[in-house]
Every structure is written in C-alpha cells, then in structure tokens.
Amino acid sequence: MAKRKLGKLAAVWLLLASVAAGCLPNAGGSAGDSANAAATGGETDRAVRIFNFKVEMAEQLSELAKRYETETGVAVEVDTCGGGCDYSAGLKTRFNSGDKPDIFFVAGYSDLELWQEYLEDLSDRPWADDIVELAKPAIVKDGKVYGMPLALEGWGFIYNKELFRKAGIPDVPKTLTQLREAAEKLEAAGIQPFENGYAEWWIIGNHLLNVAFAQQPDPSAFIDAVKSGEETLVGNPTLAEWIDLVDLTVRYGQDNALQTDYNTQVTNFAAGRAAMMQQGVWTQLQLDKLNPNLDIGFLPMPINDDAEAMDKLQIGVANYWVVLRSSRVKKEAKAFLDWLASSEAGRRFMEDAKLIPAIEGVPVAEERLGPLAADLLKALREGRTLPWMWQRYPGYEADTSRMAAQIQAYIGGSIDRERLVREFQSIWDDWKGA
Q1: What is the rounded CA–CA span in Å between residue 124 and residue 147?
Q2: 106-138 pLDDT, tens per residue?
Q3: Structure pTM?
Q4: Are strands 313-316 and 385-386 parallel, antiparallel or unpaired?
Q5: Mean pLDDT of all residues in the chain?
Q6: Are 151 and 347 a contacting pair, CB within 8 Å?
Q7: Distant-in-sequence contacts of 38-42, Cβ < 8 A, 24+ apart
Q8: Does the chain have fewer CB atoms within 10 Å around its N or its C terminus?
Q9: Per DSSP, which regions of 56-102 are E strands?
Q10: How far apart are CA 154 and CA 226, in angstroms?
C-alpha cells in the first residue's frame, strides 16, 4: 500500500520540490552539510547517514555527530535539506533513486502510513515508553512505535512586547476583537501590526490553515467525516470565522505579504519593523542571532470572541527520527538514537538547538530554551493547547500546498471567500482514499 501511495505522490512532490520550500529557508546551516565524512577514511558505507529536515539546527546536529564519533568511533554523516529545499519531496526523490538515508524524519499520521513499510519497529528501544503522551498517537500504529519525536514545537503570533507597550496595549489580546483593537492601536502609534510571510506555502497551508481545523468542535472526527464525504468544508462556520482572521492579518500587514519569504519575515520582525508575526518556536535561534535583546512572547490566533476557546497555542511534534528497516547500519542507527535520548551530549544538543524534549526525563534547563519555549510549556501545563491537524489530511503536504495556493489567490484578490472554500473541498475530493 505504501509503495502505491509513494508512486502516486511522486510526480506531485517532484513538482513541489521545484516551486516550494517545505523546509525552513537557510538560517545558519547549509544544504549538503556532512559531518565527519572525511573522518571515515572512505568507508562511508559503514557511516550512519542522516537526512535532516531542520536547517535551523544543522550546525548543532553536525556538532553532535562529531561528538558521537569521538565517543563511539562510529561516523555519522548529516545531510541537511535547506536553502529552499522541500524535505518531503527530497526524501521521495532519494528513495526513488535508491539513495536511502539510514535515519530520516517522518511526520506521523498520513506521513507514517506512507512510509511505514520502510521503517524499523523501535518499540523495544529504552526511550520508547517515555515518549510524552501528546507525541505518541502520530507515530504509534498497531501497538508499534516507529519513531522518536524530535521535539515538542508550537506556534502562534509572536509579538514584540516593547512595541505593544509603546502602543499602550497592556493586556494580551485573546479574542478576534481584541486582536483587531490591538492592531488599530499599533497602527495609530505608527507601528506596523503584522509581518506576514505569505510567500511560503507551509506558513499558510500548514500553520495558518491549521487553526480552521484545530478549532472545530471535534477536530479529528471532522477531518474523518470530510474524508469520508459525511461532512463538507463548504458552509462550515469555523472556516468562515478563520477567513476573518486571514483578512485581519492582511488588512494590518505589509503590502507585499505574498512576496515575503520566511527569512525576510523573520529579519524584518527582529529589526522591529512589525509588532507581530505568525511563526513558531523554531525561530528562537535566528531571532537570538539577529536581535538578542528582543522581548518577545506568544499570542494565540483567535478566530472569534470566545476568549476561553481562543486562548490556546498550537503544540505538537513536527517530525520523528525514524530508522530505515533495510539499512546495513540499522544497529548503529538505533544506537545513535538511544545515545541522543540518554547522553549528556544529547541533552546539550536539545538546549543548544532550543528544542523542547518530547521524551520524559530528558533534563534540559528550560531557561536556556528561550521565552518562546517558556510560553509553550506554560500553555502545555495549563492545558491551553490546540492539536496539529494537517498531518491527518488525506494528502498530507501535497494537500496543504494546494490549499495554500488557493489562500494566496484569495489574499491576492483572484478569488472570493466562497470560491476559496469550494476549492478546498475540491482538493479534498481529489485525495479521497489516498
């Protein structure tokens, strides 16, 4: 089944690879970064090869690989998908060409179904029982654990607290009306409210659109019902409310949102050119480099005026480390993951990369993770969380990228609200049974 699905999606992903950035743009690492390749003395067939999807942790992961070889004598080569690379498409291309990495990343749910037959069962690893509950459902199937969560991540509107103070906004906006009022005060004070990175399909197709599904009364049941045809996206009131939020960000954002990529968005926000941007905890490393004195935190992404329901952050696991079942260095690959989850070097890697552990008992110093992680952890402890839903869509990111194109068309004025939702429904209809 997975081979059939992989073949069905290959053409779509190869197309997306040439036009879209699924990985974050280069923020300090470099594509093709290989740690310790020269140290293997040419015996790269015995090295553990990792295909990394997170450019922002490429430097830290390469340092970790060097440390591992020093401690164990086993070489680890890190190849990072960056500089506009689409990770999912790149991974499929590697498999189709026979260049399969030993360790790579799978997102879970629909992505797990696609890759399951290639994955080693990791249920017997010493960390498997310690995966936090929130991270388990996406990577456990038929009682088997197929991956180790990289980290807990989350997003919302990151806001500049200093600019909010300058505009006289004392309280964190939790409702759509409060967010609009905050935007009006910022604008009146000569401060641009939003910096929107709407040139990136994953910002809008994965993360922005997620709010419309995560705020459904029963998100998982709703997605299953739309997949089966029992429900429709057309006429859904929560989707209509979500479009109100999109409109608000466009109204109070910069003029060239559809030409603003990730790096430009983050750089402009770090420079104080806007008070808010829709982004995630993964930006902490880059923001620290660009402006280490930035006073920031997370706001929710409200779509209506129900303060209790809206005051939540979207928290989950973006990807899981997985091991290729047919790898010739399968034993070494699993040993590397065990070491990552239990060693002092692994703990330091999490802190240096600003990653929130999704394995119980990994003792990181929370204060070293930064203010964005602190806000996510506070929301997690208080139960103020929304689930990540796009991983459950029938076509996963091939689906979200198509929906993102329609959102961009709506933002650009080519289609109206009703047409936007009809296009969403058409995309889901195309992927039924995928």
Answers
A1: 11
A2: 999 989 999 999 999 999 999 999 999 999 999
A3: 0.86
A4: parallel
A5: 89
A6: no
A7: 39/69, 39/75, 40/75, 40/77
A8: N
A9: 76-80
A10: 25
